[in-house]
What does this fold into?
Amino acid sequence: MSTLETTNHEEDGVTRRDMIHVSAGVMAGVGAIGALWPFIDQMNPAADTLALASVEVDISQIDVGSAIVIKWRGKPVFIRHRTAAEVSEAQAVPVSDLIDQQTDEERVLAGKDEWLVVMGVCTHLGCVPLGTKSGDERGDYGGWFCPCHGSHYDTSGRIRKGPAPKNLEVPEYAFLSDTTLKIG
Amino acid sequence: MAEWKTAKPENKALGWLEERLPILSLVNNVVGPDTPTPRNLNYMWNFGSLAGLMLVVQLLSGIVLAMHYAATTDVAFDSVERIMRDVNYGWLMRYMHANGASFFFIAVYIHIFRGLYFGSYKAPREVLWMLGVVIFLLMMATAFMGYVLPWGQMSFWGATVITSLFSAIPVVGESIVQLLWGGFSVDNPTLNRFFSLHYLLPFVITGVVILHLWAKKVSDSGNPLGIEVKSSADQIPFHPFYTIKDAFGAGVFFLIFAAFIFYMPNALGHPDNYIPAEPLVTPDSIVPEWYFLPFYAILRSIDFPLGIPGVFELIDAKLLGVIAMFASILVWLALPWLDTSKVRSGNFRPVFKWFFAFLVIDMFFLTWLGGQKAEGNIPLYGKFATLYYFAYFLVILPVLSRKETPLPLPESISNPVLKPAE
It folds into this structure.
């Protein structure tokens, strides 16, 4: 029983039916991928997680040379009141000596360079480096030392030695007054 | 391919079922009296079925634990302590499950290294071997997520370190890590999804195990001589011969397992995991469970980039370490094509034997290194151990399979057994 459509060949043996098969297949594929997206995206941070407010910190109690750690978005943030010696040490390092090249000025707010605010998350694999509490080991460069895999950070929170690829991240922050800091 | 025999049960009800769903034939052909098996299997061949038994132990104890566990950061730690103190036999279930993971890995590691020595990955068993590698990867994922559930310090920081590995991927790394966390750090959403997946993956493993057994049926068991089965004189039925041998081995294995559960249940764990998770304090040293240590040592030993440090880095140190760690297992998938020697069994490869022995020592050394702090000479030793590990698979095996002169192979499996030596 030969039918009309099987003899309805066009050039190169491509039929109208082939076209229908391919376009139906493509549409089904696109639809499948579209349907998959909600199943993946549900894993991303939910609205209430994203809505985490910024935090305000009273820094009047932080003596020169000491530091505190606060929690922001579930992660630690180091706020360090640097001594004049630590600041000049951080500024004196030639940028070309650094693994992740940044000057100290790029990492603090102008006129407030005694305050260093960095995420307390090692850029290697996310441990909390030591050096915030007094008595902690501060590594070879007087900043922080990550005990997990031995990364050394300097007094500007810059990576100097060890496996971490980047400097400690500087979060968005601003001074609301001389004694109040807003992070986020 | 092995012959398929249809079971003809005498019991009428069973016969009725068999005609409609040949499930007896399935068992009979894979581990039954109609499963002809090489007669010369030694005790190294016990660990496949042992691993299967451990999977059952883990499934049973795990399902029971899930009845009492709560996957919420506020109460997860306390719910595990409640299992330990208040739930009837909860301590037994939990110690069985925690030590069971270790013993599952012991069985699987011996099973894998049996395969490496006796050439179980060679034709026609490549797919059988590769399915095994898939099972091992799934086991690692399952064990990792299970360790996070008690929400102790090691749970939290182990999860942080391992999920952060993905941040090494260029461009999309950070987004992937946020996707895994469901937030900006390891937190409640992370714990919840890990529990969900920890419950799911063992059933996926069970599925792949069935494929693994199917592939075993198709290509038959290997044997210590590594030669093909020539006649039925080379074979004995799986049941009762190997079922009884496996059962004896299981008795010995479970005796040691029981010694751990009842007399030193925390010997293989880390004491810091009895401290509730604290996101602001990293423990002195973050150490994974022992069965991850060799791969962790490989990750840590790569602290240099691919290229010229600081000038031209094709792949930075962090990414290279992560690639090396995953590659150290994925290289097993390519093994059938790296070792092209026609002789399967290491017994007949006089040079291979030594390199293999050194690989085993290297693995123990890597395990030890992974548990040490990254100080002094430890990173340097790690580099040498990592170098040998990869050299074994990527250089030594390919070269050896061309250069080595193997010893003469026996005529058949039954020959050295049945005929006296001349």
Q: What stands out?
A: Chain B has two domains: 41-220+237-275, 287-401. The CA atoms of residues 299 and 323 of chain B lie 8 Å apart. Chain B touches chain A through 37 residues (CB under 8 Å).
